[in-house]
Amino acid sequence: MQSLEAELEEARALEVDALADAIESIGFECTRCGACCTGEAEDDHTATVFPDEVRDLQETTEHDWRDVARPMPYGLADGEDGPEGETFEWALQTDSCGDCAFYEEDDNGVGACVAHDDRPLICRTYPFSVALAGTSQPMGEVVDSVALGAQREVDETGDEESVVQAHECEGLGRDISRSDAEDLAAALKERAVRELEEAIGVRDAYEPTAVDPGEIVVHDSEGAKRPDGTPIDD
């Protein structure tokens, strides 16, 4: 298995043109169906957000940290008074229906993001992700994929190539302009780099933290925090 640093170098070496070629090959146009912004059955909507993205949304929406983000539920245990324990990411906040707190529908059921210009990278790049040299981020079922460069799953050495993956979305398979594909590709590369930078930052900043019953601690690249975003050390 490659080190995070090696994967980061791979992410930084991704070519936007190759990513755009793959996106064009798959095709995509947002239909504003809202499926990527809403929860499913008993599962709340979950979208990873970086600490600086939370602050950007705070500034533009004039919301508190808790109104923008919540501790990622994965890894938390069910305590007597709710979730408790340690987790290592932030997720966008949800409403009482389990939908993203920034998602709204008009009277005709057409969805829109009220923070569209400042939406996180994971939202800007959905339904695509990059699997670097055979690795992948858990983002739902992969329904299509295109290998970069040679446009196939393995190179001449037999090693797996980086792959652009498409996840379930009714907008897939639709025509996309080259300029839109390039914009999406640039965001996809930025996200791949940022995810690895955050992972390395979390690893380097992590220190074991005593968690009392009923308490949640979120470890991000800036250190250990309470659910309201304030550092544990404060």
Automatic annotation (TrEMBL):
A Pfam family that the UniProt record links to this protein: CxxCxxCC
Compositionally biased region (Basic and acidic residues): 217-228
InterPro entries registered for this protein in UniProt: Puta_zinc/iron-chelating_dom
Region span, Disordered: 211-234
Protein name: Flagellin N-methylase
